Amino acid sequence: MSLITAAEMAAIREVAESGLVTPVYIQTKSIDRDAPDGWSETWVESSTPVAGWLYEITPSGATLGVVAGAVGLAESLWLRLPVGTAVEPGDRARVGSSTFVIQHTNDDSTYLPWLVCSVKIVVPR
After folding, report:
1. Is 43 helix (H, G, I), strand (E, B) or coil?
2. Measured at the alpha carbon of residue 113, what is the angle toward residues 61 and 6, in degrees to the nearest 5?
3. For residue 64, what pLDDT is reported?
């Protein structure tokens, strides 16, 4: 027996997704194995954005840490997307002028009002 009917979940998703208003462009990696240097990779960005919601979940009690000699606070960021968005760990998401790598999604959750992705910012080289 299901705790929530399909109609109830559809109503929950409608409310949940009403807060997704930020344009998000999904980027997937394309590898050319016949490139002149043996292989090359490029990021292919979706031409149409999906609506999303990027937010920080770093706890207010987070402590400073040292990584490779640098002191910093490890930020935790989540990106909410509509259920069914084609995105996998390793893909990227561009939000405004920032790009994030998708680390994990909750697409296997039994309660899925929206797709939640844990992300880390990609620092340009």
Report:
1. strand
2. 150
3. 53
89 neighbors 106 (Cβ within 8 angstroms): no
Amino acid identity of residue 78, one-letter, is W
Report pLDDT for 105.
94
Q: Output the pTM of the full model.
A: 0.78
Query: Domains, the chain, ranges and CATH?
Result: 6-121 (2.40.10)
CA-based torsion, 34, 37, 41, 42: positive or negative: negative
**Tokens 């996998």, located at residue:** 88
CA within 13 Å, CB half, 90? 4
Q: Residue 24's closest CA among 116, 106, 125?
A: 116
Residue tagged 């705790």 (tokens):
3
What is the 3 state secondary structure string of 68-108? Answer: CCEEECCCCEEEEECCCCCCCCCCEEEECCEEEEEEEECCC
Side-chain-facing half-sphere of 26: CA atoms under 13 Å = 19
Distance CA 14, CA 8 (A): 10
Note the pLDDT tens digit of each residue in 12-24. 999 999 999 999 9
